[in-house]
Amino acid sequence: MIVDCHCHTGQGDLMTAPWNTDAPIEPYLRRARAAGIDKTIVFSTFHTNYAEANRRVASIVARYPDRLVGFAMLHARRDAGRVFQLVKHAMVKWRFRGIKVHGFESPPTREVCETARALRLPVLVDVGAKPHIVEMFAPQYRDVNFIVPHLGSFIGDWKAHQQVIDQIVRHPNVYADTSSVRHYDYIVQAIKRAGAQKLLFGSDGPWLHPGVELHKIRLLGLRPRDEALVLGGNIRRLIRRARARSIQPSASSYSESREASHTSKGCELCV
Ligand SMILES: [Zn+2]
What we know:
By secondary structure, the protein is of the alpha/beta class.
């Protein structure tokens, strides 16, 4: 099963750039199907209200339940004090399976990391070419898995790529995705140094073509077992730890979910 771990959907309300204006899912899904991509992790564009934006993402996921899985996007500072509620709601009501934060808005705070720990969710954190922040949260939360998109830089900052490769080698709980990386040898180096189990295929659709991004992975010429990890095995392993089904909507503290046991029944990715 091929899983794209990084795609946006819904509409942003800022309208100063594509990534805060519109991320139409249908053209993406047509391209993804043609490329052989089975499932896709989706989250919102930049937005001024992530409770609302996540709701819209959920309505899109509901239209394509066999192909889309949601992550809850949040702004760590603006949503401070309600992060757990926001994420738990998305998990229980819409079966979201992860958290997305963007360093341009606010890097993950302790509240975000503790929510991820309690719900056993991966955090996809765009570090915006400032990978040094990974050195703060990754050692503090060894039991939380972090995925750094674009090998650290959407715009191809090779120094960030170098640093993130080093981080996925050193930190057992840090992973990277391949979306938008155009300095190809950094992808090669990431596989060689960190191993296929630390790299995830992502497209950053709908703005980048998922078929083009997928072909980058094919061109690595990996052994079938390693290619399968990059193309879906790794993200499936990371999201199957989620505890959503056992969390009651009335739960109001981190600790209430701690003793809950995971069941993957009903989650198509948890197979
Ligand atoms: Zn993105």
